[in-house]
Design a protein that fits this description.
- Strands 1, 2, 3, 4, 5, 6 and 7 form a 7-stranded mixed sheet that branches.
- The protein has one domain (2-136): Alpha-Beta Complex (Aldehyde Oxidoreductase, domain 3).
- It contains 3 helices and 7 strands, in the order βαββαββαββ.
- It is globular, with a radius of gyration of 16 Å.
- It is of the alpha+beta class.
């Protein structure tokens, strides 16, 4: 399941809803990752642009990989501005065995950082500045890289 939100994510609501939805589906592990915007380099927060068609395709490929291991992926991400100390990204893996979830969450988060079509901007003095030094070009993206 892929969820996109405007602004910061409500961590408690999302994780609680996910847990309550899947706790009786016979998964033995529910491993999650929560990304919090850090106060660094004088930023007031981060802002995100998302190319949804490619993100959905990328996520579906991961969901197929998860399904091969009897696992299920969940992801939520922010669009627009997210202030410091708020959450912009949550992902989780459900699986019958913890080793599958632990391994998959690491691989998923790393691939997300490298390949998801989400562009990050620093918020400084009320303006968005492209965070090129912390961005990774997406393979085959052409002018979008």
């Amino acid at each position: 399941m892929l969820e996109l939100y405007d602004g910061a994510l409500d961590v408690e609501e999302i994780l609680s809803r996910w847990y309550n939805t899947y706790k009786d589906k016979n998964y033995g592990a529910f491993i999650n990752f929560v990304g919090i915007v850090r106060d660094e380099d004088g930023i007031e927060g981060l802002s995100f642009d998302i190319y949804e068609p490619i993100l959905k395709s990328w996520f579906e490929k991961w969901q197929e990989k998860a399904k091969e291991q009897n696992a299920y992926l969940l992801m939520a991400h922010s669009r627009g501005d997210v202030p410091n100390h708020k959450t912009s990204y949550i992902s989780a893996v459900l699986s019958p065995k913890r080793k599958v979830s632990l391994k998959m969450i690491e691989e998923f988060v790393e691939d997300f950082k490298a390949n998801a079509p989400i562009w990050k901007y620093d918020l400084k003095n009320g303006k968005r500045e492209y965070a090129i030094d912390r961005s990774t070009p997406i393979e085959g993206s052409g002018i979008l890289s």
